[in-house]
């Protein structure tokens, strides 16, 4: 199957989001205390597991997008919304906008982009 350029861009964005979630996972494990506005080490095993799982899912989704699987479109929509919900929970429970700003912006742009008719047509979900 031929892969449109938009789907290729989505695959690369999924790789970037996997990388961002891996960085957040390392921050919650206390390995990267110098990133962010909070000084010192923060340890939260629950958030580390959650963001580690999200990093794995984004990497898996990038592979699905690269192959233009029909199920990848729906899975991308669900994971993007789930990631936005996790970022919102992090904001409500004491995180700062600096911690999740890039993730929220990229996820919102991906969600808007995948709802366009041309992208849906590439996955034959019309």
Please explain how this structure is put together.
This protein is mostly helical and about 130 residues long. It has one domain (about 5-120). It has 5 helices and no strands. It has helices at about 5-30, 45-65, 70-90, 95-115, 115-120. The longest helix has 24 residues, at about 5-30. The radius of gyration is 15 Å and the shape is elongated. The two termini are about 15 Å apart. The model has no long low-confidence stretch (mean pLDDT about 85). This is Integral membrane protein. Keywords: Membrane, Transmembrane, Transmembrane helix.
Question: Would you kindly provide a brief summary of this structure?
Answer:
The protein has 126 residues and is mainly α. The protein contains five helices and no strands. Helix 1 runs antiparallel to helix 2 and helix 1 packs antiparallel against helix 4.
Low-confidence region ranges: none
Q: What is the end-to-end distance?
A: 17 Å
Helix content: over 70%
Counting helices, strands and paired strands, the structural category is mainly alpha
Mean pLDDT: 84
Order of helices and strands: HHHHH
Q: How is the main sheet built?
A: none
Radius of gyration: 15 Å
Shape: elongated
**Which percent band covers the strand fraction?**
under 5%
Instruction: Please count the helical segments.
Output: 5
Please report the total strand number as a whole number. Answer: 0
Structural domain tally? 1
Protein name: Integral membrane protein
Transmembrane segments: 7-30, 42-61, 73-98, 104-123
Keywords: Membrane, Transmembrane, Transmembrane helix
């Amino acid at each position: 199957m031929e892969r449109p350029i938009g789907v290729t861009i989505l695959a690369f964005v999924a790789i970037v989001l996997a990388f961002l979630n891996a960085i957040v996972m390392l921050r919650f494990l206390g390995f990267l205390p110098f990133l962010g506005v909070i000084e010192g080490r923060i340890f939260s095993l629950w958030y580390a597991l959650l963001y580690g799982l999200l990093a794995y899912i984004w990497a898996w989704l990038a592979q699905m997008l690269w192959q233009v699987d029909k199920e990848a479109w729906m899975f991308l929509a669900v994971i993007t919304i789930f990631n936005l919900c996790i970022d919102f929970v992090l904001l409500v429970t004491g995180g700062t906008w600096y911690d999740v700003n890039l993730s929220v912006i990229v996820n919102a742009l991906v969600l808007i982009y995948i709802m366009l008719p041309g992208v849906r047509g590439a996955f034959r979900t019309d």
